[in-house]
Amino acid sequence: TNIIKYYRTGYHFQPPKHWINDPNGPMYYNGVYHLFYQYNPKGSVWGNIVWAHSVSTDLINWVHLDHAIYPSKEFDQYGTWSGSVTILPNNIPVILYTGIIDVNNTQVQNYAIPADASDPLLREWIKPDENPLIVADNSINKTRFRDPTTAWLGRDGHWRMVVGSARRHRGVAILYRSRDFLKWTKAQHPLHSSSKTGNWECPDFFPVSLNHTNGLDTSVDGENVKHVLKVSLDDTRFEYYTIGTYDTKNDRYIPDRKMIDGWKGLRLDYGNFYASKTFYDPSKNRRVLWGWANESDVVPKDAIKKGWAGIQAIPRKLWLDPSGKQLVQWPVEELETLRNKKVELRNHKLNKGEIVEVEGITAAQADVEVTFSFSSLKNAEEFDPSWAHLYAKDVCAIRGSAVQGGLGPFGLLTLASENLEEYTPVFFRVFKVKNKYKVLMCSDASRSSVRNNPKMYKPSFAGFVDVDLSDKKLSLRSLIDHSVVESFGAGGKTCITSRVYPALALFSDARLLAFNNGTETITIETLNAWSMNKPDR
Ligand code: DQQ
């Protein structure tokens, strides 16, 4: 049977067909949201990359326009790779992007401007003759020199922006400065770099407020402002970020002391989420994050049969946690306009081994929010000291949803088949470490499909949740959409996106359940679940 047709999402961003990857140059301009993205107009594997262009007034319903940027000049004839938008003070949006200029993959930085800035949709973009704006000097590896950020203005009235790069195994954010946005000079020192992280792709550098959840425009600085640097690690397709201080005097970014500046650092998403990029949305005073959720079937045959590959995760509002120690993310509120049929559970107890089905919604295309509570922490299982060096995902692989615990595992079984031959559990497990507690959140694809393609990648994604358990509650929201489950633990402190490819839990055959597999009884205080409508796309 032709099951792969069921993998197309219902409400995530995807064009009608073909391959997509990185979100590029997201912006809000004159009442319209723009999303550009890396796109192959000729097929469903990576290649022939152009900047496809879609517009929206609500980040949910989209209209697809003609490609904004595609290879057409000497300075980009072998590729138009990722980049960002900066809206200049005269209200002209400028795209900075990476051009590939030869078969050796040599990378340069170019710019493009709207042919007519009064066109409400900014349909046509031109690439002026001053291009390329920046070529790599001899100190830079020309094939690792890409993905310019949104530029910011310093107090001296000069622009700054960074380009992702590497010096051997050291990831580097090369800093450039300009007075007029045309002539760019490399700063003596990079904005930041970190050893043994490999090539940095798609850097993102932006301010966040210490006092509120509102976003800040990219040039904002001053008291009660922290800065975030996010990088995408070429070698493994994971990202990490740090929070720190932007030392404007030396034009350097310094991560806060306790930040892990490397592989084991904080992640915006502990799952399938890459090449992400934020933008400031002045209409709602928020910073919004876009990220690419690649296919994880790694079976090109499927991509070719499907005729498409890649989706964008639901855009998220992002802000600094009051602790200052991490970011918090939540799906943009506009998503809630797609909520349709609602079902709910109230004060439902789950004893050890119990499950409850959430009936009456289209479980393959749903939004579910749940708050779990418990009366004591004393049953939490010991955290094995030998796991101390492991990633959360490794602990999840050892202690999955089927392994009985003390306080947890409890959570949701998403995209579950009739007899639970398939399911993607999203759950918590609370561990005791000395006198403290450690909360693990997993989105475990290991049983997501009975398809036995040996190449299928079914990872047990997981992250720890830095949450105060004194109220003995844990909340979870999952966005379920046929081949994707995007989850937000503890109000968005830990986020995990899984791509999954069930063979049985398809469309109306998919079920949604809540479960508890720990000795401590769990109460579902509230569970609200909605069928999700399809937006225009
Ligand atoms: N994708 C683009 C590059 C970027 C990479 C090419 C990240 O610009 O470094 O499609 O996924």
UniProtKB/TrEMBL annotation:
Keyword Hydrolase: yes
UniProt keyword annotation of Hydrolase present: yes
InterPro entries: ConA-like_dom_sf, Fructan_Metab_Enzymes, Glyco_hydro_32, Glyco_hydro_32_AS, Glyco_hydro_32_C, Glyco_hydro_32_N, Glyco_hydro_beta-prop_sf
CDD domains: GH32_Fruct1-like
Pfam family, any one: Glyco_hydro_32C
Domain Glycosyl hydrolase family 32 N-terminal, chain residue ranges per copy: 12-331
Record domain Glycosyl hydrolase family 32 C-terminal: where: 334-531
Keyword annotations from UniProtKB, A to Z: Glycosidase, Hydrolase
Superkingdom of origin organism: Eukaryota
Family: Belongs to the glycosyl hydrolase 32 family.
PANTHER family attached to this UniProt entry: BETA-FRUCTOFURANOSIDASE, INSOLUBLE ISOENZYME CWINV1-RELATED (PTHR31953)
Listed name of the protein: Beta-fructofuranosidase, insoluble isoenzyme 1-like
Organism: Solanum pennellii (Tomato)
